[in-house]
Specification:
alpha+beta; Arc Repressor Mutant, subunit A; Jelly Rolls; 2 domains; six-stranded antiparallel β-sheet; four-stranded antiparallel β-sheet; 12 strands
């Protein structure tokens, strides 16, 4: 199709291009978009040792808390990576009692980790993503920072993760260190943002308080709308999904127990 045959932006003429052509290109672009996000999770998994840690756990699988400890990353980030890796078919859910456990197929692990294998692709994923603008910020957020001698986290010193696929920003509020029992995170969801494409269970109890805006929370089979000042305690193992259907951003303080 020549440029002269392309309808002007905003023309709203659905008949200007054959429907089968729109469907074909739409499906192709969606596949590319999903592939891009899957590449991000694969690159992070290889670069930060997450895939290696899951593979080392074998068929019994690994929990988010165990992954955070082995790979030395922030526990909320370990949970975020496992959920995203599961959604993009990088890891499999092998047990869901209390704390969900995830495993990786040995063949996939070999392709991503074994540099002597003719099938090795791990380095390719890391190099393909390494040049993107906010990759360094993702790495810094996922890695565990050194513990502060004081239990104070200044507003300008919070590790921050910007997640484009979920339209979310996560700020780690805890000072870190061994022995802490709480993991506080400030979550900002932009309009249309969500915590995932489907509800997901965590093995830890969570408390959440809405600070700004309104958010839809799916808990198991029911959905609640929470406004400013509303709070909820989510039991371990409950399926949950946060979603912002409104035009304004929403901010949620989430505190998870270890």
């Amino acid at each position: 199709m020549s440029a002269s045959n392309v309808p002007p932006a905003g023309s709203g003429d659905p008949g200007a291009v054959p429907t089968n052509e729109l469907d074909r290109h739409f499906d192709d672009l969606i596949e590319s978009l999903v592939g891009f996000y899957r590449s991000w999770f694969l690159a992070l998994g290889v670069e930060l040792g997450l895939v290696r840690a899951v593979a080392a756990a074998g068929g019994a699988g690994i929990t988010a808390e165990e992954l955070a400890r082995v790979a030395q990353i922030h526990p909320p980030a370990a949970d975020l990576w496992l959920r995203g890796a599961y959604a993009h078919r990088i890891v499999d859910l092998v047990a869901s009692d209390r704390a969900p456990r995830f495993a990786v197929d040995p063949a996939l692990a070999q392709i991503l980790l074994d540099e002597t294998s003719p099938y090795y692709l791990g380095g390719q994923f890391v190099r393909s993503i390494d040049s993107t603008l906010d990759y360094a910020d993702l790495g810094e957020f996922f890695r565990t920072a050194e513990s502060s001698p004081l239990p104070v986290v200044r507003a300008d010193a919070r590790p921050v993760l910007h997640s484009g696929w979920s339209k979310a920003q996560l700020e780690a509020l805890g000072a870190g260190g061994v022995g802490g029992r709480l993991e506080p995170v400030l979550v900002t969801l932009q309009s249309g943002g969500s915590s995932g494409s489907r509800a997901f269970a965590s093995g830890r109890e969570e408390f959440a308080l809405v600070l700004d805006g309104a958010v839809a929370l799916t808990l198991d089979d029911s959905e609640q709308v929470l406004a400013v000042g509303d709070a909820v305690t989510i039991r371990p193992g409950a399926l949950r999904r946060w979603r912002n259907p409104n035009e304004q951003p929403v901010r949620i303080l989430i505190v998870a127990g270890r």
